[in-house]
């Protein structure tokens, strides 16, 4: 029968028929990306796919091109739940279907506790209410499309270094009010079909084996019927995880839950058959939901495809533009109007202008089905306005951490972009000697090659891969610097000369999910007009290092990366940008970070921009006051030059439509309406968790407690560079007439309606995010954050001179705190302050009113 028939399965009956071995098999994955099926009972296997800003499919290596959406911080910056729900339904769910995946491993809704966190870009916000409401919209959209979500990383995975071992030590109040709250809101409003546990411990116990979080909170208090799966390799025991309620161990590679070990655990009474079948039942329930939701996936051919319709492209461009935040716009420098402003020459500078900065790194990374760079997008938009406009370019200052990949610099013998990959088995599984005859040869169009488990069938346990291509000829003699990283070992040859040896001995590094080497570099002189031969030899066995002699076989995470760039003098590069700035009418500087700096696997060490970027911006803006700075990063960065520039736009990571969306905002085709989803501090020392962010002997102390993000800056009176919720427009808005209804308390809940009038007092159509913050009664015996976002709404496309009344609903969540002594939510009687405005900045919370609750109450659940 077709797999979709499982949509009508009687789950208790199926569970009853399961043998013990079949039940065991259902509790762990198969390979890297599938659950286990039971053909005898018609149970289909499910395919899962990363990730939060797109659907990669099952291959890191030569993956199927995909739609890459803006980073989660960018989605949060839209403050637009309707838009996020739309992209969940129309883009993400549909992309899952053409990628043949039933479960999307997303969204990530951890808290932006510290912008140094390597995966900060993957989470929506530093604020739990905004995070939870955006996450709920995301989940609802995807699941309404028939695809399961696996909301993650549940809970407290707020940094990357030591992520599988560190213990997130926090108070019950912080756990409940800050870190669990986004998941709680997603459960209340969207009911995710599955939850993915975090790698780390919380208050002493790994989450994957934490009954308090999985059983007591998720399944007990929140009444969730979701399946609970582990993060990949995030299981550390058999009995603890099984008994705590972890239903599914992922992946199936190198798993704990083998038939042998699970049966031995049953025989020793560490676990029972009954409990194993309970875990299997949750997997079956998830399978049934997927069969009911998108039967065409289970009945399909399993082939991954890509598709870009005009409607999809327009929607990706829309969400990217809606997320962009206009931080500063002195003298109305923006939008650019070349004819009105007399702009005849534009200088584009910066290391990110022509770079392929698509998303952060790790699970979120994918191969975009198309990409528009900031440079290309801006040039096209300017030329549309005035075909005679002169655009000049200088990199100015380099921003890459590792040498840029050579995807568009290498060609095969027949001229295709990329190179040829040839796979060689070894004499036997223990041998380091490659056989002379290859097992497979294939075309490869990428030079960052994370093979993962995508090696050919029939290859030996140890194997060698050779990559051959030619560099595109240069128009002049030049020195070229190559960079080589290996998760395994590798050598680079140019014209048969050894240029880099990362094979004999290597330095351990952080790349390829912590299994790669440091980047080794070598310089080779290129001759004008010569297509130099490039060959990389790679073996999936680590080389010894000074720190250890380990020669481990990389069986599930081998990879190699080749990058390179022409050698340049940093001073000359900067001087060229400054000279262009002096000669131009307007300068657009595009700078920031990329997936090397912000990635799964390790944390940043500084908020600073790379290399001499800060110097570039200061010098260029001094040379030309009409300088527009566009920053790209997934989380906050330091901007020591912020007071020196007249126009500043933050664009996050925007995916496929990057350049088009940036150009839309710069030229006024789109009036910006994005708001910062996290605070931008002036310096690292101002960050709430500074000094206790790192894992110290396996302990991460959440000493800032409730005062995360903007709550800290208000509580301590610290002025950030830009406040949470800040974002300008090309028009202006006036807030007036805040009204609060009388509170209605019924059945353990409270209902209050707030209304405010928004008027467009400017000259162009614009959209505005209305933000409402609550302050708990000062009569409380406890210390509370000075203000908390509890509601927001987006006014769309308001015409000049027009007004709109905005209603904001408040319920028990707006007035509650967690009372640790009684393990319950509490709403106190007393006077609550409500403030409404454009951002969390004190000067922008222009409207305020109070309401009185004459009687308090306690509540549990959701």
TrEMBL record:
The keyword Ion transport does not apply. Transmembrane segments: none annotated. It catalyses: Hydrolysis of terminal, non-reducing beta-D-glucosyl residues with release of beta-D-glucose. Belongs to the glycosyl hydrolase 3 family. Its EC number is 3.2.1.21. This is beta-glucosidase. It is an enzyme of class 3 (hydrolase). Gene3D superfamilies: Galactose-binding domain-like (2.60.120.260), Glycoside hydrolase family 3 C-terminal domain (3.40.50.1700), Glycoside hydrolase, family 3, N-terminal domain (3.20.20.300), Immunoglobulins (2.60.40.10). Pfam families: Fn3-like, Glyco_hydro_3, Glyco_hydro_3_C, PA14. The keyword Hydrolase applies. One of its GO terms (biological process) is glucan catabolic process. Residues 414-578 form the PA14 domain. Signal peptide: none annotated. GO terms for molecular function: beta-glucosidase activity. InterPro entries: Cellulose_deg_GH3 (IPR050288), Fn3-like (IPR026891), GH (IPR017853), Glyco_hydro_3_C (IPR002772), Glyco_hydro_3_C_sf (IPR036881), Glyco_hydro_3_N (IPR001764), Glyco_hydro_3_N_sf (IPR036962), Ig-like_fold (IPR013783). It comes from Phlebiopsis gigantea (strain 11061_1 CR5-6). Keywords: Glycosidase, Hydrolase.
């Amino acid at each position: 029968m077709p797999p979709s028939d499982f949509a009508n399965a009687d789950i208790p009956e199926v569970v009853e028929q399961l043998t013990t071995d079949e039940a065991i098999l259902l509790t762990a994955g198969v390979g890297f990306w599938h659950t286990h099926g039971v053909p005898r009972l018609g149970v289909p296997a499910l395919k899962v796919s990363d990730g939060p800003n797109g659907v990669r499919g099952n291959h890191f290596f030569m993956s199927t091109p995909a739609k890459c959406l803006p980073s989660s911080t960018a989605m949060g910056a839209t403050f637009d739940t309707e838009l996020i729900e739309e992209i969940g339904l129309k883009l993400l769910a549909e992309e899952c279907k053409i990628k043949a995946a039933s479960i999307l491993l997303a969204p990530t809704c951890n808290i932006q506790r510290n912008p140094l966190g390597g995966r900060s870009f993957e989470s929506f916000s530093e604020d739990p209410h905004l995070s939870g409401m955006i996450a709920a919209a995301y989940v609802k959209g995807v699941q309404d499309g028939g695809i399961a979500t696996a909301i993650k990383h549940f809970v407290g995975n707020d940094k990357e270094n030591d992520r599988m071992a560190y213990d997130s030590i926090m108070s019950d109040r912080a756990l409940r009010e800050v870190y669990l709250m986004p998941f709680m809101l997603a459960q209340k409003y969207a009911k995710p079909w599955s939850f993915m546990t975090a790698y780390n411990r919380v208050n002493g116990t790994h989450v994957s084996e934490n009954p308090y979080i999985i059983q007591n909170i998720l399944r007990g208090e929140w009444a969730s019927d979701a399946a609970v799966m582990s993060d990949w390799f995030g299981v550390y025991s058999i009995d603890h995880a099984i008994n705590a309620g972890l239903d599914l161990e992922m992946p199936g590679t190198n798993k704990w839950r083998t038939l042998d070990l699970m049966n031995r655990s049953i025989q020793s009474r560490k676990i029972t058959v009954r409990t194993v079948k309970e875990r299997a039942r949750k997997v079956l329930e998830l399978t049934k939901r997927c069969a009911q939701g998108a039967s065409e996936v289970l009945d399909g051919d399993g082939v991954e495809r890509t598709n870009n319709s005009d409607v999809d492209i327009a929607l990706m461009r829309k969400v990217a533009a809606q997320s962009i935040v206009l931080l500063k716009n002195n003298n109305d420098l923006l939008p650019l109007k070349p004819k009105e402003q007399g702009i005849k020459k534009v200088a584009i500078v910066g290391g990110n202008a022509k770079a392929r900065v698509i998303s952060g790194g790790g699970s979120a990374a994918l191969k975009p089905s198309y990409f528009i760079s900031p440079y290309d997008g801006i040039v096209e938009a300017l030329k549309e306005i005035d075909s005679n406009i002169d655009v000049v370019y200088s990199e100015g200052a380099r921003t890459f951490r590792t040498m840029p990949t050579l995807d568009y610099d290498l060609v095969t013998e027949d001229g295709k972009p990329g190179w040829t990959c040839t796979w060689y088995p070894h004499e036997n599984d223990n041998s380091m000697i490659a056989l002379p005859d290859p097992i497979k040869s294939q075309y490869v169009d990428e030079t960052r090659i994370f093979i993962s488990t995508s090696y050919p069938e029939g290859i030996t346990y140890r194997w060698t891969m050779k990559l051959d291509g030619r560099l595109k000829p240069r128009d002049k003699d030049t020195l070229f610097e190559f960079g080589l990283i290996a998760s395994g070992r590798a050598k680079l040859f140019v014209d048969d000369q050894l240029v880099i040896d990362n094979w004999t001995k290597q330095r351990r590094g952080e790349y390829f999910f912590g299994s790669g080497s440091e980047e080794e570099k070598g310089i080779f002189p290129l001759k004008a007009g010569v297509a130099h031969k490039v060959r990389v030899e790679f073996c999936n066995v680590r080389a010894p290092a000074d720190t250890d002699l380990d020669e481990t076989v990389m069986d599930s995470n081998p990879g190699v990366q080749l990058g390179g760039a022409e050698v340049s003098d940093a001073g000359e590069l900067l001087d060229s940008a400054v000279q262009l700035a002096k000669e131009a009418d307007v300068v657009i500087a595009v700078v920031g970070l990329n997936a090397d700096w912000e990635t799964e696997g390790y944390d940043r060490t500084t908020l600073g921009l790379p290399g001499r970027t800060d110097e570039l911006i200061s010098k260029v803006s001094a040379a030309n006051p009409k300088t527009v700075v566009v920053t790209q990063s997934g989380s906050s960065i330091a901007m020591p030059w912020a007071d020196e520039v007249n126009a500043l736009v933050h664009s996050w990571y925007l995916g496929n439509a990057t350049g088009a969306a940036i150009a839309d905002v710069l030229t006024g085709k789109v009036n910006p309406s994005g708001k910062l989803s996290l605070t931008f501090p002036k310096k690292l020392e101002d960050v709430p968790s500074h000094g206790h962010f790192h894992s110290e002997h396996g302990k991460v102390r959440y000493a800032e407690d409730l005062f995360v993000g903007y709550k800290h800056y208000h509580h301590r009176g610290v002025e950030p560079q830009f406040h949470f919720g800040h974002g300008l427009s090309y028009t202006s808005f006036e807030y007036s007439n805040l009204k609060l209804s009388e509170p209605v308390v019924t059945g353990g809940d409270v209902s209050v309606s707030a209304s405010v009038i928004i008027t467009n007092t400017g000259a162009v159509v614009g959209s505005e995010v209305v933000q409402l913050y609550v302050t708990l009664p000062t009569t409380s015996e406890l210390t509370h954050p000075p203000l908390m976002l509890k509601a927001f709404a987006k006014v769309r496309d308001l015409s000049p001179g027009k007004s709109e009344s905005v209603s904001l609903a408040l319920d028990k969540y707006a007035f509650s705190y967690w009372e640790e002594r009684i393990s319950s939510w509490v709403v106190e009687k007393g006077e609550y302050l409500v403030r409404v405005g454009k951002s969390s900045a004190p000067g922008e919370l222009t409207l305020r009113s109070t309401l009185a609750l004459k009687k308090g109450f306690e509540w549990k659940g959701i």
